[in-house]
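Quick start: load a record and inspect it. Here is TNF receptor-associated factor:
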Amino acid sequence: MCPACGGAILNPHQTGCGHIFCAKCIRMFIKSSDTSKCPLDGILIKSEEVFQDNCCKRELLNLEVYCSNTPDCTQKVSLCNLQKHLTLCQYETLQCSNPGCTDILLRKNLSDHQRNLCQFRTEFCRHCTKPYPVTQLTDHEQMSCPEAEVQCPNNCSQTVKRHKLKGHVDECPEVETDCIYKQYGCTVRDKRSKVKVHEYTEFSHHVLLVLESNSKLAKQVDQLQQDLALQERELKERNLLVANLNREVTKCDSTFSAIQRSVVEQRECVSSVKQELQELRSVLDAELAKEELSDLRASIDSLRQQVAMTQSLRDHLGALGQTCQRHTRLLDIHVEQLQCNEQRFRQLESTSYDGKLIWKVQDYQRRKDAGMPLTSPPFYTGRSGYKLSARAYPDGDGSARGTHLSLYIMVMRGDFDSLLPWPFRQSVTLTVLDQSGSRNHISCSFTPDTTKESFRRPTADSNAALGFSRFISHTDLEGPRNAVYIRDDTLFIKVKVDTTGLEDL
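Running the structure step on this input writes:
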């Protein structure tokens, strides 16, 4: 036993005083202090005197020990053979090697588990003979195996292999197809078997269709031949016109040549005149140059003054532009603030604080055609009560789309939520009002299910809406016998919250 840790000695090392410790324990002694002493005799332990005791190590390795899987395994083996025994021990726990399986089993049970019990074992498909995990084999055979026999989707009572199904559909007698004489005007479309019978029994009718089509084609050919003859005549006339034009062009060419010769002569005359003018100008330039130079100087001075004035105006204009941009930004901010204030004032004017809301929905038909949800202005159960709003789907929501009006209620985040009891428990009544005066209103009520998140204290702007997806059908809403729910393309919806038991703060 190790004098330091009290356990069996692992990797024995001997000190200069002759005592044996675990290698780990003796290292801890040396590291803990430069003057560490042996706990048995108090002699100073020097690191250079510590060495591995191979003799003791050999004795320890020859000791017989029980298997670590005792009491299931009763074998005793030498310490040096313990690891070899564990690689064969039937009571050693191992993880199943099938991919995806996390079961831990004894070695003696592992083989049977992997072959017969494991949900991730591999078996061969009985149709295509390819290996698949047991958990996927049924889905493979039923959904994707190309060799599996499947029923024809057209109920022709035949079974074919899945990879041949597409080819079978192209020949299946139960598939709907057009008559082969469709291009000639036959409109019959039926199952392939019936179309075959139709093609046989209606042969004479089909012949008439083909003859009628050929007659139309013959008329078209005659018309095309007439058009071709007409175009040939026009082509001959145009060829004659081109010949006449060619003769005229030849005449023009000769005239043009004469004109070119005349132009050459005129150029020579012009060159002679230019030379005479240059000689005359050289005489006059000396006298005129002085007058023109003084005029040019005056013009340059005037231009310089105009440039300086223009630059000054440009700088001033830039400063004015920056000021204008700053004023424009401030004006945009003011306009945005005014719009926000105006929207808030409108909400305050239409907000009720008694748990009731009369919601006027205009342009009903346009909003229904758009298929988008509508949200009412918010209302409250009291000055410091719950904040709520209604939501309507004129064209229906979910499975009711296209058939019903859907109405819901939403609990919204309010300023006084921290002072109110949660979850929301008050009964809610949704009503579509009769505008005929007969008071045949349509109403539905519900009491909140306090286990649903929709009635707990909101953490966002509003909770999910809950209510009635099939509140009233479009037929009953738009064409009732004893009421008028839509007048002037306007619908009125009333929401009433039972405020019994609520106290305003």
